Amino acid sequence: MAYFSVFGDEFPLEVVTDILGIEPTKTYKKGDIIEKINNPNLVSTKIRRRKETDWTLSTGYQESYDINNQLNTILKSLEGKTKELKQLKEKYSLEFLFMIVIQVENDEKSAMYLQKNIIDFASLIQAEIHFDLYIFS
Known about the structure:
Blueprint: E1 2-8, H1 13-20, E2 26-28, E3 53-58, H2 67-78, H3 82-92, E4 95-105, H4 116-124, E5 127-136
């Protein structure tokens, strides 16, 4: 799975959607209650709240052996929107993040490299790139 997140303190989510012309996969606002994970091993009575506002565009989980397939899907949606992203970033003090989530099962490994177009775009909009790796045996 890959996703692109626009996040910051507080900003109007609908403005990001309107300016980019893209429906997000998920959004939440600073102060929203974080839903509890249904895990019998974790017992918590504390209410946790979101510490920031977030607008996310995600591919969802897909079977793939090359993370660039998912990243290019996200990039295709953001194509031609560099100016708008930079303006949003400046106006609302936003941060951008590309997240790559890899689940490895049965010791099958995927290619873990970034194509130049992805690096260039992330650099252009000053986005970070993070990786989450989960290995299941």
